[in-house]
Model the fold of this input.
Amino acid sequence: MSSWKKAYNPDHLPGFIETGIILLIILVIGHTITEDIAVIYHWDHRWMFYLTVAGFVFDLIFTAEFAARSIITLKHGHFKHYVTQERGWIDALTSFPLLLLVSGPALVVYLTDAHAEGAFFSFLIILKTAKAIRVTRVLRLIRVIKIFGKIQNTESQMTNRHVATISTIAVVSLVSVLVIAQFVPFLHIGDHEAYRQRRVSELSSLFQAASAFPEGVDRSSGIQKMIRAEGKGDVIKIKRANGEVVFEADPGESHDLMFTAYPDSIVIPGTDAQVNLSFHGADAEHARLNIIVLLCILSIIGSFMLLYTRIFAQQIADPIFVMDKGLREWSYNLEVRTLPGRDKEEVFRLAQVYNNRWLPLKSQIHSYRKTQGGETAEKSVLSLDGLL
Amino acid sequence: MSEEKKIMSEFVGKLWANPALAGASVVRRENQILSFIRENQTQLQQAFAKPGYFPDLGWDGSIRLLFSVLTDLIVDSVEPRLDKILGALLNPEVLPQLEIRPQEVDRERIKDFILKGLRNKATRDPYIAVLETISYGLYDRYVPKALARHKVIHNEFYRKDRLSLPAPIMIAYLQLCSLFRPLYWQKVATASNNQLNLAAVAKDPRMFDSTYKFLNAFLVQEMGGVPDRILRVGLESCMNAEEHPDTGGSARLIGILVARAAEFDPTQKQDRGAESPDKSWFHIHKKTAKYYGYDARYLDELYQIASEEAW
Done:
């Protein structure tokens, strides 16, 4: 610790840990996609548990990482800089809030008896909040941007910073829209209440269709076949008022569906039956939206990194680099390459002045100094070290 | 070799081979060493006075020895290149194509004369610039392109110089003429026993012609003479094209390419966002053509060639 204080590492943590964190970010993005796929395809409860454990572990690691960075930067008096300039706020948002509000409670519910009454209700609340916050995990992709700078061979700090900034703005905008949409009724995709109403209406239609069967046909059997033919897999049990069970899901399915069931049985309008329904279909809709948004974000960030980095470097960073070098070094006399049709842009207007005024002037000054003091007027690059 | 010369050779050798000078031209290496001596004079004075170095020579003696060793090193490093160039230009197959009888030039005497010139700082830099122009292949690069374009350079060669040579022969012609360019700074004794060079009398046509005659006589004595039209082109290449509008087309091109070679760094990398080295150089000097006395039209054409070829 004390050695860290003496030699401040702008990356905060040792190199191998930083590399490990980058790998973990890529893994957690994969985990996020896998979790959404698991919801869409309603994977076995066991796999959902494993994914929840994995999510908890990831969130725990990132929370520890944020804590470590906070401690180190506080010690060096750079905490504010870390939070505001080095995107520490993203580290904060994607660490302990997810641990405390998403993966932590989810794991607790899984580890306790999840069939217990009331646990479902708590779980529902947790999931609603979790859905809103979970998407912020993708913000961690911003941290990956810096390694792409090296891949592109862009040593320009300005280029990397600008690309990271516009990527952050784009991603935060998308994520904000997704979070806000959770709380706007007509925008909320995967709303449990809307799903419930729709499904109950559909089941009511099924019952009406069954009532039109000719006499002698087993209506319950017909209803079972129709429900299975729907393929939605969200009906746990349908029971009439007289206790007759019209439909019941297989025991294995039923066990998994209980984790995503509405707390109370729902009356099917126009019938004397009540249904125990699972809302995993609503969650699947929301999960599809999450994957689409995630892929959009990946595409946007990828495009910025691969395409915009090059454009920014070519049109801004490289001309500035050449001018900077030409102003500092007497012997550097390469002109700035100006792009055709961009003469009116600020950087290239400056480059024209540099090419047409400064470089010829520098050449004359250098030539004059040579005539006055000979070439020996130039400072030597040689040193006495190791010579005598 | 005396012990002191051995020690000095080792010292100068270390400076010469310093990694900081990797890729530097001979002229730049020499000037960097001279700057180094000047900047570290105090420390070197103390060191050279110690046993193991040159306690008996004193500072002046040490410096004379250093300059002598440095000059030897420079001449030794340049001589193989000079041999190669003279071998390529002054051979019985090339000379007749330049309408020069092989008997008119004595290769060995020319070589000895140039080596002698290399030992004098005033003529060393111009000689090395000329040799580097040829070694870097600047004539080979630009002359064929310029002739093929049939624009300013080609027209000047054809109309002013009455030259209609194929590109390889034109290159040999220009290289040969440029070998005698440093004679512009060669001091010769005049009728009044003054030591004058053509550079000092360039603005006075009568003095120039008079000094030229003495230079010619000097050259006959030193190297058996040089064909007049070859010598004139070499000397004219040093003149300001603005002040001397009658300067021939070949001379104008030699002046520009030798100046380019003096600042040419074959190891220079072209940074991203930067123009190529030759293109940059020609464009900058087009803007300052009057200051340097170059023909701006030539620079413009060379700039266009460099742009097309990304040189």
